[in-house]
Amino acid sequence: MINPFVKYKGLELFGTYEMARGGMITEAIMRNAKQYSVDLIYRFPQEKENFWIGGRYNAITTTATLNPSDVTITRAAGTQGWFVTKNLMQKAEYVNQQYKSFAATDIRSGGKFSGFMIEASIGF
Question: What residues contact residue 85 under an 8 Å CB cut-off, 6+ apart?
Fold first, then answer.
């Protein structure tokens, strides 16, 4: 796994690349998984950086049990938010997620989600 992070003024770039191999104890063949993601966020104003706008893309490809080929799940999101106080965050996000190459008998076959989310969190 590698997780690079670069920040220049209010612009942040964060990435992930991960490879894994394993399986259940009952499986004779090991399965592989690869995941990568990229987050790009711009925080403003310069002196506070309590507002942001950004985007994220994440994809994982893996060998699933009882599936004839590798499956892929992708997720793209655009977000904007605000740290109202040091401990209170509010954001709005548009998400598009898709499940690809799952067997026709799998509940995730052709699955997808897209829509808006609004959320807030309090942390201490």
Answer: none
